[in-house]
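User: hey, got a sec? need Ribosome biogenesis GTPase A folded
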Amino acid sequence: MINSINWFPGHMAKTRREIKENLKLVDAVIEIRDSRIVKSSANPEIDKICANKPRVILLNKCDLAEDSVNSQWIKYLSTDKINVLPVNCLNGKGLNKIRPALNVILKDKLEKLKNKGIQNYVIRVMVVGIPNVGKSSFINKMARNNIAKIGNKPGVTKSRQWIKTDIGIELMDTPGILWPKFEDENVGINLAFTGAIKDEILDIEELALKLVGFLQDNYSSKIKERYKLEEICENPLDNMENIARKRGALLKGGEIDYNRVSVMLLDEFRDGKLGNISLERP
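Assistant: Yep! Here you go:
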């Protein structure tokens, strides 16, 4: 279903080239990932291209994932050159810790500048991440106005721009970068669950069924409570049909409206209405 999708329309290849060229203009990289799918929302290309730059990884939408799993990821990803912060780019939670985090990973450089008499150095940072992880929301929150175009359709941000903030950081935006093909089908599925891949190019019913399968195996109490189910069946299709009946997602004659229940399930998961759910653990 998903690993057959071939990315790399022209602008993705161009983005990769631009990131490589522009790295020399910045002191550090801020990489934004989705806290529910920390591994799947990390483009291995970014890891390769930005390997030698100090980096702050923001686990965005942290309040949609489990706190304990966020903590595990922070411990797993942190190094002396990588600082990891749980944030919510829409309401600004955790963003006040970014400058201190940059100060830590750029300590040597900032000290050298201080010795040369440069006190209030403006740190230049490149913002990277796959489409739809919240880059535009992050930039707008940091700049306190709607500079970047926000859209929950992947690929809205198109061209490079510098954005000033009031905490001594300048941000360089980049378009979202996806990769040529998914080596692991689960990566594609997780990206689809969270809306990083356009629903229009997927089989939405198959996707929702996979989501129900994951939830019944890992968060059965949450779907039982949310959809007032008497029991959790072994077959995901039975659970999906029971949810449809509970929500009145039915066609004439009482048949299940699979498309309607699929859209509803995915929307409610993405909006956090099912509670804190982590799709991946380190």
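Quick note: The beta strands are 28-34, 55-60, 82-86, 123-128, 161-164, 169-173. Let me know if you need anything else on Ribosome biogenesis GTPase A.
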